[in-house]
UniProtKB/TrEMBL annotation:
Signal peptide: none annotated. The lineage of its organism: Bacteria, Pseudomonadati, Pseudomonadota, Gammaproteobacteria, Chromatiales. This is High-potential iron-sulfur protein. Specific class of high-redox-potential 4Fe-4S ferredoxins. Functions in anaerobic electron transport in most purple and in some other photosynthetic bacteria and in at least one genus (Paracoccus) of halophilic, denitrifying bacteria. It comes from Ectothiorhodospira marina. Belongs to the high-potential iron-sulfur protein (HiPIP) family.
Length: 109
């Protein structure tokens, strides 16, 4: 009898463990979405933004390194290409940049 109860207990433990492993990635999706929603937009007047010649509108920049058609949305450093208006950038942690923006750190995706 005692062996049977141990097997049932072990089986339940493995089931709950499997459910827990499946739940971890799904919970992570909710946390990243919530974290991105709470990030503020990058101020183009900040020291970091000015050092990298960041602008919210790539078409308005007259920087000599700017290439036609380059903007944050098609940059390798733009962390979430599915974010179509504002999204995270590896160069400006904790801030969101405009998908239509540009800076001198731009790297083709």
């Amino acid at each position: 009898m005692k062996t049977l109860n141990n097997n049932v207990s072990r089986r339940r433990f493995l089931q709950f463990g499997a459910y827990g492993l499946m739940a971890v990635p799904l919970a992570g999706l909710g946390w990243t979405t919530a974290a991105q929603a709470s990030m503020e937009q990058l101020d183009p007047e900040s020291d970091t933004a000015q050092a990298l010649a960041y602008t919210h509108d790539a078409e308005s920049t007259e920087h000599d390194q700017h290439q036609e058609g380059s903007h944050c949305l098609n940059c390798m450093l733009y962390s979430d290409p599915s974010a179509q208006e504002w999204g995270p950038c590896a160069v400006f942690p904790g801030k969101q940049v405009s998908a239509n923006g540009w800076c001198t750190a731009w790297v083709a995706r």
